């Protein structure tokens, strides 16, 4: 007991003794001690891991039970949010570990996220159950997180020394970025399984949740009510969101790292996580989801498109090739596994949207390599 008590008191003192001399007001871009840089970005990885774990459990939780503000997934997210707020304060006050662009992205992202939390609580208090991940208050959470992760990516990109570690961690941050973007689509991925379970007469959601969702429509718990709960957005949303936003993130990852297999590895890492969390949730009785395996085919096409040397041609070829990969992957997944409704007719819109997004990534990439003071 004495040894444990000694460690509990000694370690915090050592941390304070190490960090206190570094706690000083500074402008972004100031030279950062290497050990401090590692600590800051390791803490970001921990915070994002907690966010991903909490979010994965949260969406499954809400396909089984009514909302609970003190649900365990929310508590996990709260711990991650506390770490994020602490890191944001450090970057803002000291200027360590970020340039001006990274600092602004992190500040705006964290600020938007913190504002979205009470707005989401107010929304639920006024409107009751929010049956879609695509609501305005939820969108603010995703947008805030996106800006936050973009700032962290920028800070690591300009501050980390060249080498394999820099590339691997950069790819990991893009993996977190991809997860945050795909997260709203998990509503459809859970919904398609949940709807099928209800049709079979084996509903995964508790009766009070289904009754609450049906009450919002003024209906009994019937097929229309359950379908509105499980799949509340138009079919084309799923394929267009993945084909434009998801693939644009993989394009940015490939461009930023310069490594030829980055998009494929980022998508494979994300899918590997989904395949690990799936049996863990199922094993403790929570609903499961369709896994977006089609993303891997789209990611492979992103890496193939980067074999085209001219960037302007890469935009055109890439938009065509990647959209074919995404919609072809969706067709295969729907035929042989399970996929949410995805509107096959939406492919021309995906080509145009991805071409615009790819162009933005290519042009922005030419500025990303220039640190801002």
Brief sketch in words of this structure:
The chain has 373 residues and is mainly alpha-helical. 75% of the residues lie in helices and 0% in strands.
Explain the overall architecture.
With 373 residues, the protein is mainly α. 75% of the residues lie in helices and 0% in strands. It has 14 helices and no strands. It has helices at 2-19, 34-61, 72-94, 100-127, 136-159, 164-182, 186-199, 207-217, 223-230, 235-257, 262-283, 294-305, 311-336, 347-368. Helix 2 runs antiparallel to helix 3 (72-94), helix 10 crosses helix 13 and helix 12 packs antiparallel against helix 13 (311-336). The protein is globular, with a radius of gyration of 22 Å. The termini are far apart. 41% of the residues are buried. The mean pLDDT is 90.
For the report, how would you describe the main beta sheet? Answer: none
Radius of gyration: 22 Å
Strand segment count = 0
- Rounded to the nearest angstrom, the distance between the terminal CA atoms is 50 Å
Order of helices and strands: HHHHHHHHHHHHHH
Q: Which class do the helix and strand fractions yield?
A: mainly alpha
Mean pLDDT score: 90
Mass-distribution shape: globular
How many helices does DSSP assign? 14
Content of β-strand = under 5%
Uncertain stretches of 5 or more adjacent residues: none
Fraction of residues in H or I helices = over 70%
From the structure above, extract its key features:
single chain; 373 residues; mainly alpha; 14 helices
Record the SSE blueprint:
Elements: H1 2-19, H2 34-61, H3 72-94, H4 100-127, H5 136-159, H6 164-182, H7 186-199, H8 207-217, H9 223-230, H10 235-257, H11 262-283, H12 294-305, H13 311-336, H14 347-368
């Amino acid at each position: 007991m004495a040894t444990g008590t000694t460690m509990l008191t000694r370690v915090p003192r050592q941390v304070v003794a190490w960090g206190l001399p570094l706690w000083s007001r500074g402008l972004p871009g100031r030279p950062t001690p290497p050990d401090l840089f590692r600590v800051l970005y390791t803490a970001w990885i921990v915070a994002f891991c907690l966010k991903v774990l909490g979010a994965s459990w949260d969406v499954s939780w809400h396909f089984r039970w009514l909302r609970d503000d003190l649900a365990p997934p929310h508590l996990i997210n709260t711990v991650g949010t506390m770490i994020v707020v602490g890191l944001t304060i450090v970057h803002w006050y000291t200027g360590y570990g970020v340039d001006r662009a990274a600092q602004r992205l992190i500040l705006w992202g964290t600020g938007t996220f913190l504002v979205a939390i009470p707005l989401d609580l107010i929304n639920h208090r006024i409107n009751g159950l929010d049956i879609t991940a695509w609501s305005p208050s939820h969108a603010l959470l995703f947008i805030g997180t996106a800006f936050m992760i973009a700032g962290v990516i920028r800070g690591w990109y300009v501050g980390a020394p060249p080498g394999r570690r820099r590339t691997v961690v950069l790819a990991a941050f893009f993996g977190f970025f991809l997860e945050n973007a795909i997260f709203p689509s998990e509503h459809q991925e859970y919904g398609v399984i949940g709807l099928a379970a209800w049709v079979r007469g084996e509903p995964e959601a508790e009766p009070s949740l289904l009754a609450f969702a049906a009450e919002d429509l003024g209906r009994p718990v019937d097929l229309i009510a359950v379908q509105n709960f499980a799949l509340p957005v138009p079919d084309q949303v799923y394929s267009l969101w993945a084909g434009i936003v998801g693939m644009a993130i993989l394009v940015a990852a490939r461009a930023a790292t310069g490594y030829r297999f980055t998009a494929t590895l980022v998508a494979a890492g994300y899918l590997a996580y989904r395949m690990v969390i799936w049996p863990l949730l199922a094993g403790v009785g929570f609903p499961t989801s369709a896994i977006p395996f089609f993303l891997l085919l789209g990611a492979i096409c992103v890496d193939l498109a980067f074999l085209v040397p001219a960037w302007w041609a890469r935009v055109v070829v890439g938009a065509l090739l990647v959209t074919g990969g995404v919609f072809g992957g969706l067709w295969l997944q729907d035929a042989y596994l399970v996929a949410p409704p995805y509107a096959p007719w939406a492919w021309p819109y995906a080509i145009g949207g991805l071409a615009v997004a790819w162009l933005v990534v290519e042009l922005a990439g030419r500025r990303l390599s220039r640190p801002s003071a």
